[in-house]
Amino acid sequence: MTSSSGNYYNQDQYDDEESSRGNGKSERKWYQSKKAESSRTQTPNYGTSSNANQQGLLSEDEEETQIYVVKQRYGVLSILFSVAQTVVLIVMMIQCGVAPLNINPMIGPYPDALSEWGAKNAVFILDDGEWWRFITPIFLHAGVIHLASNVFIQLETGAFFEREWGSITWLIVYLVSAVGSSALSVVAMPDAISVGSSGAVMGLFGAKGAEVIARCCESNKTDQDHVAYQVRKEQCAGVMCSVTIVMLFSFIPYVDWAAHLGGLLAGFCAGMILFAIDLKRACLSKFFWLLVGVALTVVYFVVVFQRMYSGNVEYAEELRDVCGYYKQFFDDYECKCQLGEGNQH
After folding, report:
1. Would you indicate the residue range of the signal peptide (predicted)?
2. Catalytic one of 146, 167, 198, 345
3. What is the C-alpha separation between 108 and 330, in angstroms, rounded?
4. Of the residues 141, 146, 260, 345, which is catalytic?
5. Which of 38, 114, 265, 284 has a C-alpha 20 to 30 A away from that of 245?
C-alpha cells in the first residue's frame, strides 16, 4: 500500500537501545546513522511502512536511516486468521467438491455449502436468533480467488497495522468491524447470503483513518514523532485509495456493498475510541475525540440494530431452504452438501 525507504523496530528493542545509550554501551545504530548524526540540519528522509515491513535490524555500515518503531515484530493474529480461513475453504472443497465455473467462478465449493457453515443469512439471524452469523462469515470465502484477494490485503496491510497497534487493538477493531459489516448487510441486503473477510479488512482501513484524525493533536517533538507522522500521512493516502477502489468494486453484481460500508464505518468508530484513549498526553483533543468515538459507535449500532429488529426488514423466505433456492438458477444443480450460498464481500 505504501513504499519508500526505512526500517522498523519493535518497542522493546527501541527501549532497550535507549537504555544502553544512557549507559554509554550502545552497540547498534537505532535512530540515525553516523552521517545523519553529524549533520543534524539536513532534512531527514523518513522511513515508511512498506519498507519497514520488509527490513529487520540496521546494519552497522548503513549510511543514513530513519526508523519507525512498532509495537511488535509480527502480525500474529493476521497470520492466524488467514491460515484459519484457508483451512476452512480447503475443508469445504474436500467435503463438497469443486463446483463448475458456471456455478462458482471463484474456483470453490458448490454454493449450497456456505449458509450451513455460517454465512450471513437474514432468515436464520432474525427468525432463529443465530447471532454467531455476525462473526462466522469472516472465516468463509466463495473460492480460491475470493480468498486470495482478501488474504493478500490482510497479510500485506492488515498485518502491518497489527504490528503498529498491537494484537489486542487489532483484534477488537477486526471483530467489531465484522459485526458492523454483517449487521448493515442484514438491513440493506437482506436477500443476500454473504461471506468473506473484506468487511473486517475495510474496518482496519476505517480504524487507520480514525487514528490519523485522533493523533492530529499530538506534537512532533522527537525524531520518532516525525517518523510516525510521515508514515501515518502516507498510510492515510494509501487507505483512501484502497477504500475508493474497494467501494467501486462493491457495486459489481454478487458483491455485498453493504458489508464493505458497514465494516468501514464500524472500524472507524472503534478506532476513534481506541486511539483517543491511546494518545500520549491528556489534551482537550483527546477527550473530544473519545467523546466523538463513543457517540458515533452508539449511534451506528443503535440505529442498525433497531432497524434490524424492528420488523421492517423484508427478506425472501426461500432462503430458509438454500438448496432449493439455488436450484431455481441452475437446472443441473445438485445439493452435494445440503447447505447454502452467498454473495462475496
Report:
1. none
2. 198
3. 16
4. 260
5. 114
